[in-house]
């Protein structure tokens, strides 16, 4: 059994000097006067859109990023510090803790119902991914603990090497190790005899690894890599990539639905054009990590492409003025909060480690799936807890109602 200490409560409150220094760096930041190629038809083909970067940087340095209504938060020119202190106040509404487990300082936030529920709440551990952070769960978790039937408690840890958790203590630390630590957090530290797991991106892998522990009764994910496809599909996709002949478009003849074919085409596009970040973070994490470590605008530029590509284009952060989905929390502010966490905690370089250390980890053995619940949505994206928190709440509630073990009478 993993060794664990006693949790200590903490407050999110970064030093004044760090915020002053950040403001100075943002004020001094310079961007190119024109795009990398003028007259680009589709800026996405070249990476981060300079127009997006200019907008985010301007609102960041002035301290008034936009909310889900695409309205500026606060007066223009109030600065980073005033805005960030208001963010910290929101983040501290639910308590934060740190605890030592296996040489890792694990940070977690604990969401509980404000009123005692009629039945014992279901403990749920939410695991984030990259470039996410514990903050992406805030809206989802706060809404979920308001549910009464069933009731929930939500534990949101920061992965080792992310946010307020310390970096892994040794070389070769994989997500299986993270899952073991998180299981200890839920059982030995918090005392739960049974819990459920939820996650996306790396959080999917962590949740899948948690599911092997007896205390983890069910797990839910909003990220489903195409690992359940027949094995012959992978060679077909490789041939398509090398030959240019679009075999994937004809899979409908073999019984695949239009939606499945569309998803495969998006996967193909990602493999061809969208995974450059993965290759460098997998192969040389320190090189990029050190380059971005003290560069807040660099971190923003590195993240923006991913947030835009992986989110629903109708989200407030990237939709046309007045056309953003107001139910989404994928906003300018939420993106900048995420960037702030990486910069202020100095964790950008260590956040790349799962790509390097877990590269040999087989994602999911196809034969081990026990798929009992599946749902698709018309709206949403990769960051489900931000992009459509209410839909994720409803999915988790329905899933738990159907599959959480009932007490034996």
What's the quick description here?
By secondary structure, the protein is an alpha/beta fold. It has helices spanning 16-28, 50-62, 79-91, 138-144, 175-189, 202-210, 233-243, 258-274, 276-283, 285-292, 296-310, 332-345, 353-357, 384-387, 389-403; strands at residues 8-10, 96-101, 104-111, 122-127, 152-157, 195-199, 216-221.
Explain the overall architecture.
This is Related to Epoxide hydrolase 1. InterPro entries: AB_hydrolase_fold, Epox_hydrolase-like, Epoxide_hydro_N, Epoxide_hydrolase. The protein is of the alpha/beta class. The protein folds into two domains: 1-223 and 294-362 and 377-409, Rossmann fold, CATH 3.40.50.1820; 233-274. Helix content is 41%, strand content 10%. It is built from 15 helices and seven strands. Helix 4 links the parallel strand 4 and strand 5. The protein is globular. 39% of the residues are buried. Residues 362-367 have low confidence and may be disordered.
Attribute tags:
seven-stranded mixed β-sheet, 15 helices, 7 strands, Rossmann fold, alpha/beta, 409 residues
């Amino acid at each position: 059994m993993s060794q664990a200490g006693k949790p200590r409560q903490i407050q999110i409150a970064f030093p004044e000097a760090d915020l002053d220094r950040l403001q100075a760096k943002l004020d001094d930041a310079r961007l190119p006067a024109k795009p990398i190629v003028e007259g680009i038809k589709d800026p996405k083909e070249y990476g981060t859109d300079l127009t997006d970067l200019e907008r985010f940087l301007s609102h960041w340095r002035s301290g008034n990023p936009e909310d889900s209504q695409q309205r500026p938060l606060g007066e223009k020119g109030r600065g980073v510090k005033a805005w960030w202190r208001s963010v910290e106040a929101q983040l501290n509404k639910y308590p934060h803790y740190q605890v030592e487990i296996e040489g890792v300082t694990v940070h977690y936030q604990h969401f509980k119902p404000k009123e005692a529920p009629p039945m014992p709440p279901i403990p749920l551990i939410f695991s984030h991914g990259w470039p996410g952070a514990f903050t992406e769960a805030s809206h989802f978790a706060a809404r979920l603990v308001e549910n009464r039937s069933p009731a929930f408690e939500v534990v949101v840890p920061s992965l080792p090497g992310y946010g307020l958790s310390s970096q892994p203590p040794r070389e070769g630390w994989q997500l299986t190790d993270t899952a073991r630590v998180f299981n200890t957090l839920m059982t030995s530290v918090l005392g739960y005899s049974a819990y459920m797991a939820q996650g996306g991106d790396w959080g999917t892998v962590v949740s899948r690894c948690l599911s092997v522990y007896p205390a983890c009764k069910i797990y839910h994910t909003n990220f489903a890599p195409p690992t359940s496809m027949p094995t012959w599909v992978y060679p077909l996709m490789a041939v398509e990539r090398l030959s240019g002949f679009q075999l994937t478009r004809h899979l409908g003849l073999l019984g695949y639905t239009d939606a499945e074919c569309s998803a495969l085409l998006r996967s193909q596009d990602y493999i061809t054009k969208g995974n450059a970040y993965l290759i460098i973070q997998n192969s040389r994490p320190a090189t990029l990590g050190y380059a971005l470590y003290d560069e807040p605008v660099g971190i923003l530029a590195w993240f923006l492409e991913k947030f835009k590509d992986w989110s629903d284009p109708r989200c407030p952060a990237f939709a046309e003025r007045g056309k953003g989905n107001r139910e989404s929390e994928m906003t300018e502010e939420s993106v900048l909060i995420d960037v702030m966490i990486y910069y202020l905690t100095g964790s950008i370089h260590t956040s790349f480690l799962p790509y390097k250390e877990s590269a040999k980890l087989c994602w999911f053995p196809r034969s081990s799936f026990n798929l009992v619940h599946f749902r698709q949505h018309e709206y949403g994206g990769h960051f489900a807890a931000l992009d459509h928190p209410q839909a994720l709440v409803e999915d988790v509630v329905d899933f738990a109602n159907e599959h959480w073990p009932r007490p034996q009478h």
